[in-house]
Every structure is written in structure tokens, then in C-alpha cells.
Amino acid sequence: MYTLRTKGVEPCVGHRAAETHTQLALVAAGLGVCVMPLLGRDPVPPGVVMVPVRQRVRRHVFVVWRADADRRPSIRAAVKALRMAGESVGSARPGGAVRSSEGVVRPSE
After folding, report:
1. Domain ranges in the chain?
2. Based on C-alpha coordinates, what's the Rg of the chain?
3. What predicted TM-score, i.e. pTM, was given to this entire model?
């Protein structure tokens, strides 16, 4: 895997931001670069250039609900649909493992 460190370059981290809009504002101000998912990147400020990365980047998505809310059919249906979507994405990855609240789930189980 290619990283800056494998090429002998130590990145200088001057800012950290979790919010997409803040990351884009820092980039637009000329204060750095960021890795950003395709989802949620619009609008792109003037002067900011998006470049696709060659290597796939993985992200974790969590579903959170109140403990007593799972009595509602709509909550159960939404959680089930999200788990199924996660399993289908996981089956497309090498190894096909998906993490869930029950631990690692493989689509064939």
C-alpha cells in the first residue's frame, strides 16, 4: 500500500476537522488537503479540485436508536434494511465480513 510515510514523507498535520464543510473551507483557504467521500461533498468551493483516489477507502457506518424504539415496526424495518445493505456491500469486499452489533457477520451465515 502506498502512503506518504512509505515514501519517506512525514505529513505535517496543522488542522483536524470532522465536518465536511470545515474540511472544504480549510482546503479552499489553502491550508491543506483532505480525503472526502463522494457523498456529501457538494457544493465544492471555487478553487477546490476533486481528484479520485486509486485505492478504495473504507468507512464505518453506524445505526443508532433508542433501546425502547425497536418496538416500532418502522425502526425494525429500517435497521433490517441497513443491515442487509451492509451485508451486500460486505459480500462485494474480499472476505465479505461485515461488522454489526453482534460482532463480525459473514453474508453466508
Report:
1. 1-53, 67-105
2. 19
3. 0.52
| Predicted local distance difference test score (pLDDT) of residue 63 | 82
How far is Cα 22 from Cα 19, in angstroms, rounded to an integer? Answer: 5
Alpha-carbon span 64 to 61, nearest angstrom? 10
Quick one: pLDDT band at residue 100, thresholds 50, 70, 90? very low
DSSP string for residues in the chain: ---TGGGT----------SHHHHHHHHHTTS------STT-PSPPTT------SS-----------GGGGGSHHHHHHHHHHHHHHHHHHHHSTT--EEETTEEE-TT-
Q: Are strands 103-105 and 98-100 parallel, antiparallel or unpaired?
A: antiparallel
The residues pairing with 100 across neighbouring beta strands, listed in sequence order, are 103
**What is the number of other CB atoms lying within 10 angstroms of the CB of residue 87?**
19
Question: Tens digit of pLDDT for each residue in 16-64?
Answer: 898 888 999 999 999 988 888 777 677 888 989 888 887 777 777 788 8
